[in-house]
Design goal:
The structure holds 2 protein chains of 2 kinds.
Chain A: H1 2-27, E1 50-52, E2 54-55, E3 60-61, H2 68-72, E4 78-84, E5 91-99, H3 108-112, E6 118-120, E7 135-137, H4 138-144
Chain B: H1 6-40, H2 56-65, H3 77-94, H4 112-133, H5 137-168, H6 173-178, H7 198-212, H8 224-227, H9 237-262, H10 276-294, H11 302-330
Classes of the chains: A alpha+beta, B mainly alpha.
Chain lengths: 146, 331
C-alpha cells in the first residue's frame, strides 16, 4: 500500500520535473539558423575548394606556374597556364581552372604548392544545376573577391 | 413584415458564433501547437506563410481541400462519409450549454453538464464507425483501442464530475460557475473545506480530459509511428481534416469544462472585473498546458494507459467522492 502511493507521488513528481524542463526550453531563445537567409559562420579551418591567395606586396596571386598542384592532384581537376612576361624572373599565371565536379577536396594541391599560393575557401553553397557552373576560374574569383 | 422568431435568431447566432469560434480554434490551435512545439525544441515553427506563419492554417486547409476524396474499395460508403461529421457535430453541440460569461451562453440548460457528457460520448462512436466503415483491419484495431481507452477514462472523469456536482448541488453549468464567484479561493480546485482532495480531483479530471481527447501522452488513436495513423488511416483530404478539427474542438470543449467546473468559469482570480476575458484566459492557459504536455512526454504504452486509469485514477476519484460525501453530508 505504501509502495502504491509512493509510486503515484514519484510518478507525479517526475512528470512535473519533465514539464519544468520543457517550459524552461520554451522561454530560451531559438537556435534555428534561417539557412537561405542567413550564412553559417564558418570555422577558420574549414576546408572548402581551393582558391588563390592574394599577395598584398605584388597585388596579385603568388603562383609561379610550377605545375606542382596539377601533378599532386589525384583526380586531375586542376589545369593552369602561364607565360613569361618582359622583365620578370618567373612565369605569371594566365589561366587557373578548377573542375569542381571531380575535386575530392583532399587538399594535396595546397600542400604541394611551394609558394603557398593556394588556400581553402570558405564557400559551401556549391550546388549547381549546370556542370559548367562547377568549373571555377580561380583568377576571376581572386579578382572578384573583396 | 413580422419579426422572425427569437428562437430562430438565437439559433442563428449560436450557429454563426460558435461554429466560427470552433473553426477559428481548430485552425489556429494547429498553428499554436506547431509554434509551441517549435519553441520547446528551440526552433521557430511555421514562419514562411504570412507574418509569424499566421496564414499557415489557411494554406493547410486549401491543400487538404484540393485533395481527391477517395473512398476505399469495398468500404461502407455511407458510414465512411458520415463518420467525420459524427466526430465534429458532438463537439459543436457541446458548446450549447457552456457559459462563457454571466450573460453569454447559447442555452442555460438545467441539465447542461449531463448534455455535454452525452454529446461527448458520440465522439467515440464516430471514430469507431469511421474505422469500421473504411474496411481496414489496422483502423478497426486502433478504433477498438480508442473505445477501450475512452471507456476507461470516462469513469474517473464522471466520478470527479459527480463530486463537483455534489459540492455545488446543480447540473446547470451556469450555476456551477456562478457558485465559484469571488477570488480563486472560492474555486472548486481549492475548495478544501468540501474535500481536501479537490486539487487531486482536478488533476484526475485534467488527465482524463487528455485521454478523452486522444492527446499525447494518450494518443493511441493516431499513433502514427505504430498504427499507420490509427483509426482514420484510410481518410484522404478533408475527411481527415474534419477528424483533426474534431480533435481540436474536443480540446476546446474539455478545456472549457475544466474552466467551468474547477477554475471558476468567467470569474477573476482576485474577485475583480469578471467576464468573458477571464474565461478565455483560463481556457487558453489550459490549452497551452495541454500542448505543453504533449511536447514533453512520449506516448505511453496501452497497458500503461489502462493501468493508470483502473489502478490509480478510478480508486482515487472514488476515494475523493466518498470523502466529499462524508464531509458534506455526515458532518
Amino acid at each position: 500500500m505504501n509502495a502504491y502511493f509512493r509510486d503515484i507521488a514519484l510518478g507525479l513528481w517526475s512528470l512535473l520535473a519533465g514539464m519544468a524542463i520543457t517550459i524552461r526550453y520554451f522561454f530560451q531563445p531559438v537556435v534555428t539558423l534561417q539557412y537561405p537567409h542567413e550564412a553559417v559562420p564558418m570555422t577558420p579551418r574549414y576546408r572548402g575548394h581551393i582558391d588563390l591567395v592574394f599577395d598584398e606586396r605584388t597585388g596579385t596571386n603568388k603562383c609561379i606556374v610550377c605545375n606542382a598542384c596539377q601533378k599532386a592532384c589525384p583526380s586531375g581537376c586542376i589545369s593552369l597556364d602561364g607565360e613569361k612576361r618582359e622583365g620578370q624572373k618567373q612565369k605569371s599565371l594566365t589561366r587557373y581552372e578548377l573542375d569542381f565536379t571531380k575535386c575530392s577536396l583532399c587538399g594535396l594541391c595546397v600542400e604541394a604548392c611551394p609558394t603557398e599560393a593556394l588556400m581553402f575557401s570558405k564557400d559551401y553553397n556549391l550546388a549547381a544545376f549546370d556542370e559548367n557552373d562547377c568549373r571555377f576560374d580561380l583568377i576571376k574569383r581572386l579578382e572578384e573577391r573583396p | 413584415m413580422t419579426m422572425p422568431d427569437p428562437e430562430l435568431l438565437r439559433l442563428g447566432a449560436y450557429l454563426l458564433g460558435f461554429i466560427g469560434f470552433i473553426a477559428f480554434n481548430a485552425a489556429y490551435l494547429v498553428w499554436l501547437e506547431r509554434k509551441e512545439a517549435g519553441h520547446i525544441q528551440r526552433r521557430i515553427g511555421p514562419k514562411e506563410v504570412g507574418p509569424y506563419g499566421l496564414f499557415q492554417p489557411v494554406a493547410d486547409g486549401l491543400k487538404l481541400m484540393s485533395k481527391q476524396l477517395l473512398v476505399p474499395e469495398g468500404a461502407d460508403r455511407f458510414l465512411f462519409r458520415v463518420a467525420p461529421v459524427l466526430v465534429m457535430t458532438p463537439a459543436v453541440m457541446s458548446f450549447v450549454t457552456i457559459p462563457y460569461s454571466d450573460s453569454l451562453a447559447a442555452r442555460n440548460l438545467d441539465l447542461g453538464l449531463l448534455a455535454v457528457f452525452a454529446f461527448a460520448s458520440v465522439n467515440v462512436l464516430g471514430l469507431l464507425l469511421g474505422a469500421w466503415g473504411s474496411r481496414n483491419k489496422y483502423a478497426v484495431i486502433s478504433a477498438a483501442r480508442v473505445v477501450s481507452q475512452n471507456v476507461a477514462y470516462e469513469i474517473p472523469m464522471l466520478v470527479v464530475v459527480v463530486t463537483v456536482v455534489m459540492i455545488t448541488g446543480t447540473l446547470n453549468l451556469h450555476e456551477v460557475a456562478a457558485a465559484q464567484a469571488g477570488g480563486f479561493w472560492h474555486w472548486n480546485v481549492l475548495r478544501l473545506s468540501a474535500s481536501p482532495l479537490m486539487p487531486v480531483a482536478f488533476l484526475i479530471f485534467f488527465t482524463c480530459m487528455l485521454a478523452e481527447t486522444n492527446r499525447a501522452p494518450f494518443d493511441m488513436a493516431e499513433a502514427e509511428s505504430e498504427l499507420i495513423a490509427g483509426a482514420f488511416t484510410e481518410y484522404p483530404g478533408m475527411g481527415f481534416g474534419v477528424f483533426f478539427m474534431g480533435e481540436y474542438a474536443n480540446i476546446v470543449v474539455g478545456a472549457s469544462l475544466a474552466t467551468v467546473l474547477f477554475l471558476g468559469g468567467w470569474g477573476c482570480p482576485f474577485g475583480l472585473f469578471p467576464g468573458l476575458h477571464w474565461f478565455l484566459i483560463k481556457l487558453y492557459a489550459i490549452i497551452f498546458t495541454v500542448i505543453w504536455i504533449r511536447w514533453t512526454f512520449p506516448r505511453t504504452t496501452f497497458y500503461g494507459l489502462l493501468n493508470l486509469s483502473w489502478q490509480v485514477l478510478i480508486p482515487l476519484s472514488f476515494a475523493n467522492l466518498i470523502l466529499t460525501s462524508a464531509l458534506l453530508k455526515v458532518w
